[in-house]
Amino acid sequence: MIRYLTTELRKLFPYRTFWLFLLLYMGLLLLLLFSASQVQINNQAIGDNLYKFPDIWATLTYIASNFNLLLGILFITLITDEYAFRTIRQQVIDGLFRSDIILNKFGVVLLVGTFCSVYVFGLGLGFGLQHTPAATPAKVFSGSLHVVYYLVQALGYMSIAVFFAFLIRRNGLAIIAYLVYTKMIEPLIHWQIPDELDKYFPMKVFSSLTPMPGREVFETITGPTMQLSPQQAVLPALTYILLFYLLSYLLLKMRDL
Amino acid sequence: MNNILEIQNLSKRYPGVQALDNLNLTVEGGSTFGLLGPNGSGKTTTLGIVLDVLKASGGSFSWFGQPVSRATKRRIGAILETPNFYAYLSATQNLKIVADIKHVSYAAIDPVLETIGLLSRRHSAFKEFSLGMKQRLALGAALLGDPEVLVLDEPTNGLDPEGIAEVRELIRKVADQGKTIIIASHLLDEVQKVCTHMAVLQKGKLKVSGRVDAILNQHDQVIISTDELEKAFIFLQQLSQVKLIRKEKTELILSLSDGFSSADVNQVLFAQGIVLSQLTVRKKSLESQFLDIIRDQNTPAA
User: Fold this and answer.
1) Where would I find the H helices in B183-238?
2) What's the half-sphere exposure (Cβ side, CA atoms, 13 Å) at A10?
3) What tens digit of pLDDT does each residue of B94-121 get?
4) Is the pLDDT of residue A47 over 70?
5) pTM for the structure as a whole
6) What is the pLDDT of residues A213-233, one digit of tens each?
7) Taking CB atoms and an 8 Å cutoff, what residues of chain B touch A97?
8) Contact flag A85-B100 (C-beta cutoff 8 Å)
9) What's the ipTM?
10) Fewer CB within 10 Å of terminal CB in chain A, N or C?
């Protein structure tokens, strides 16, 4: 597994598209965080409230959750590339098993997820320290568990993307299917069926990991929507992640390469 | 004899097409085995199945007497259809990935690049390569780690005449080291030039298989001329060892059954008082035989 992970990195590091996506993710997140901190409501920068420890962690991970799709599309590109170049076929010929291929991709997902979470953690520290006058270590790290929830969420978004890539095998189509499912089909299903059920749907589970800050205030107007708490969502989210790799493996095993 | 590859009753169905129909084949160690057939005859399907990328609908195969495994895969170097590499990576970077998967030292990469004549281009991206260079890099990847068996699907595809000659030379060199080579090709000439054994596929069915020279000899034609052409014609027609006879203006063209040679023809005719002015054995080119084999719908599946 470790040996193959370095092999995966050999493919990634010289690949410009990979860096482009990563820089896009890092740059856009930073930009959005920075500009949101400047927004003024009633002559007061909202940053002062939302960017303080410990609130910053919830704010930050919620904002970062919007960029998970970018990571998902990166993985769709990486995997469909292997089909376009037929390298997936050659690697099975040369000695990999289909399970190796899935494990390799999971390894990269884990790596990218960890990298992004560390980045988010770093941003949290930076913005938090800037907006919190008297930051004590206890204050700083209380609530930093949100970054772990964010990691699970990012893994979830990338894992469902991995599944769509193995299912559809073509870059453009897979990206469209991924976006249509995550942004349209699932929300439509949520609309149609009771909250009691739809809170267990994958995208809803993933989004429950980083709830919108100040949602309580919002819901006094719109009425409560039922949603798992981040703690409750971890286990279902991990189950979905496992399921997506299992399904990808079955797809690989069943079909010709 | 140690069998490298054994294929039993292998079948592959695609919707509406029987791509492979109950194929039985054995490749012996040390042979250069040509899998010959027109496009769509099932060559690539056969190789795809034994290389573990296509699923068989029925039948089985074994490498070195074992089912396919990590260990068997590492003993085989293979090209299937197209050269498959990362377009944005250089030749060396691509071969490093192959080396990782085959558990081969990176030190083996430069010698292979030297062999295939790409050492000076080792830092160029794969996408900048010409078709011939891509094909050679694929050959290099297959050679990496010095495998016991080479499986090459249309190895000279896209090469210029010089490249074709080089690849054939390379194949011969590898074969001389006692390695087993399996080549799929629609080029008869290629099989004739480099193979010791061959099998002919048509529409997923095996038409014939065996040693190339045995298959060649099987259908030799004997051409005779004599002053008494008519008499010889009548006599030979009655002879059971003469399978086919055709009379031309000044000669007779015969096709003989196994064990009955051109010398025997000479002898029986001489006993009849017919003296031959000319006797020639014409080895049919593999091409015309190949066409015969494919045309002859009655050839029993071997």
Assistant:
1) 188-194, 212-218, 229-238
2) 22
3) 999 999 999 999 999 999 999 999 999 9
4) no
5) 0.85
6) 876 666 666 666 678 889 999
7) 70
8) no
9) 0.90
10) N
A81 chain-B contacts, CB cut-off 8 A: 86
B298 pLDDT more than 60: no
The three state secondary structure string of chain A is CHHHHHHHHHHHCCCHHHHHHHHHHHHHHHHHHHHHHHCEECCEEHHHHHCCCCHHHHHHHHHHHCCHHHHHHHHHHHHHHHHHCCHHHHHHHHCCCHHHHHHHHHHHHHHHHHHHHHHHHHHHHHHHHHHCCCCCHHHHHCCCHHHHHHHHHHHHHHHHHHHHHHHHCCHHHHHHHHHHHHHHHHHHHHHHCCHHHHCCCHHHHHHHCCCCCCHHHHHHHHCCCCCCCHHHHHHHHHHHHHHHHHHHHHHHHHCCC
Beta partners for residue B34, in sequence order: B183, B198
User: A115-156 pLDDT, tens per residue?
Assistant: 999 999 999 999 999 888 887 888 888 888 999 999 999 999
Distance CA A91, CA B102 (A): 9
Strands (E), chain B: 3-14, 17-28, 32-36, 58-63, 76-79, 149-153, 180-185, 197-202, 205-211, 221-226, 242-247, 252-256, 276-282
Q: Which two tokens stand for residue B218?
A: 């099987």
Does the distance separating the beta carbons of B102 and A90 come in below 8 Å? no
CB atoms A14 and B89 under 8 Å: yes
CB proximity list for B130: less than 8 A, separation 6 or greater: none
The first and second tokens of residue B266, run together, are: 């000479």
Give backbone dihedrals phi and psi of A102, rounded to 5 degrees, phi first: -65, -45
**Counting every residue, how long is chain B?**
302
Give the 3-state secondary structure of residue B280: strand
Q: In angstroms, what separates the C-alpha of A103 from chain B's closest C-alpha?
A: 14
Contact list in A for residue B82 (CB cut-off 8 A) is 86
